[in-house]
Prior knowledge:
Mean pLDDT: 87
Shape: globular
Oligomer: single chain
Distance between the termini: 46 Å
Order of helices and strands: HHEEHHH
Strand content: 5-15%
Amino acid sequence: MKKPLGIIALVIGVVWCASTALAVTQFRTQFIARYVKKDSNDPKDRAFAELVDRAGCNICHLGDDKTKRNAYGQALDKLLDRKTDARNKEKIQKALEIVEKEKVDPKDPKSPTFGDRIKAGKLPVDVPPELMR
């Protein structure tokens, strides 16, 4: 009797982990689709693509704990649910569009928006060097 319960628990764990990875992958994929110009010969575009690649999940998260989000990740989290929106490309793109207009520091009226930073070839928020790959 213990063996079937163990198999069921294993299957549930694998499915849960796969859905979590899918959500992260889809959000990152849509970020790249919107902002990264992979085929560009412009040095600025290439530098930004490398920066995004090196930042990895830290574009939205803080370190290895994917439950902790930086300011950009928190802004997106208000608009997206990783479980229900992971496959909704249009909703993810709309959320990216909305969040790019938000200030990096809402308390500072002179603060740039997340979109201003991205247009300048920077990540939406500063990622500490130790978190870059």
